[in-house]
């Protein structure tokens, strides 16, 4: 049953990846990238219901009504082969994850990854291998003690483990479905790209949203000079958009709103304002333009 559920989960992830490649429509103008998040969430639900609940139920039944382990040798051989095969699968998942996570730790990688497939497969493989080891321990104890309740206890342990993995995966996929911003590095690159041109004084606030693993929406209010012409502002926005796409290629949807920067109107409690301030190359304090040139009377030049 667990193998069938695991194979079904891989099929669901593949379906989500294929459906995410559909062309945009009038009804879905930002595309179907979130399909991958949805199907990964379904995987978490399948892992919890078929994997975790079934294992716990099966384990409780074996504890309440112990049977007799007729062929422990066969069980050891089957579990040994499964452990070897699952180890190869986990090694492949780790290798692929290492190429994506860079220097980030495993917890950070699973927490902040925008592509759901690798974290899902990695968590499933870890749970599967750990579950096989628990099953092996349960069979060993049942064989040594002649008490088949240990086999049931192993199944309960597997169910608890699968349930924990399902909750972690569902929590992360729910966050992605609700909508997560770009990574700190990506937002820093966006702010730097916008402010790299002379036509933009600063980023007033910045909002980003992953509408898919490889598709980013960028919305920012940018400060322009008060004496700029409409044509100059439009040309500056076009230039800023080109710089953003060069710095962050997945920034597919970009919306820049020009405004006159007024320090007193900035709300420090707004996450979008904090994001721009934290990542602006022009400093956390956002000094008022020209403040460095204004000196008290009698001060040194």
Task: Give structural notes.
It is a single chain. The protein has 301 residues and is mainly alpha-helical. The chain has 2 domains: 2-178, Alpha-lytic protease prodomain-like (Up-down Bundle), CATH 1.20.1510; 184-287, 2-Layer Sandwich (Alpha-Beta Plaits). It contains 9 helices and 3 strands; from the N terminus they run H-H-H-H-H-H-H-E-E-H-E-H. A 3-stranded mixed beta sheet has the order 1-2-3. Helix 2 runs antiparallel to helix 6 and helix 3 runs antiparallel to helix 5 (117-145).
Strand order of the largest sheet: 1-2-3
Percent of residues in beta strands? Answer: 5-15%
Distance between the termini: 80 Å
The outline comes out as elongated
Radius of gyration: 27 Å
Low-confidence stretches: 280-301
State the name of the first-level CATH class of the largest domain.
Mainly Alpha
Mean pLDDT: 83
What's the total number of strands? 3
The CATH H-level superfamily of the largest domain is: Cation efflux protein transmembrane domain
How many helical elements?
9
Enter the CATH topology name of the largest domain: Alpha-lytic protease prodomain-like
Helix content: 55-70%
- Estimate nothing, just give the exact number of structural domains: 2
Q: What structural class do the secondary elements suggest?
A: mainly alpha
The CATH level-2 architecture of the largest domain is identified as Up-down Bundle
Largest sheet: 3 strands, mixed
């Amino acid at each position: 049953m667990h193998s069938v559920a695991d194979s079904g989960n891989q099929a669901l992830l593949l379906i989500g990846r294929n459906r995410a490649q559909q062309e945009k429509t009038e009804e879905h103008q930002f595309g179907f990238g979130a399909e991958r998040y949805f199907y990964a969430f379904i995987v978490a639900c399948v892992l919890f219901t078929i994997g975790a609940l079934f294992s716990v139920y099966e384990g409780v039944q074996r504890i309440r009504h112990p049977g007799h382990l007729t062929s422990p040798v066969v069980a050891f051989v089957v579990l040994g082969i499964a452990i070897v095969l699952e180890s190869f699968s986990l090694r492949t998942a780790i290798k692929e994850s290492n190429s994506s996570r860079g220097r980030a730790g495993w917890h950070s990688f699973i927490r902040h990854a925008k592509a759901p497939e690798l974290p899902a497969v990695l968590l499933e493989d870890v749970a599967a291998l750990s579950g096989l080891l628990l099953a092996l321990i349960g069979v060993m104890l049942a064989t040594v003690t002649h008490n088949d309740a240990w086999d049931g206890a192993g199944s309960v342990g597997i169910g608890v483990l699968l349930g924990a993995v399902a909750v972690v995966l569902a929590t992360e996929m729910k966050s992605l479905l609700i909508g997560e911003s770009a990574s700190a590095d990506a937002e820093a690159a966006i702010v730097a790209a916008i402010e790299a041109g002379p036509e933009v004084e600063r980023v007033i606030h910045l909002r980003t949203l992953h509408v898919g693993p490889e598709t980013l929406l960028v919305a920012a209010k940018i400060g322009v000079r008060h004496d700029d012409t409409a044509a100059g502002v439009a040309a500056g926005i076009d230039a800023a958009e080109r710089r953003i796409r060069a710095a962050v290629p997945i920034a597919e949807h970009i919306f820049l709103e020009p405004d006159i920067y007024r320090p007193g109107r900035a709300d420090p409690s707004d996450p979008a304002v904090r994001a721009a301030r934290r990542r602006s190359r022009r400093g956390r304090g956002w000094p008022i333009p020209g403040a460095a040139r204004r000196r008290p009377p009698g001060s040194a030049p």
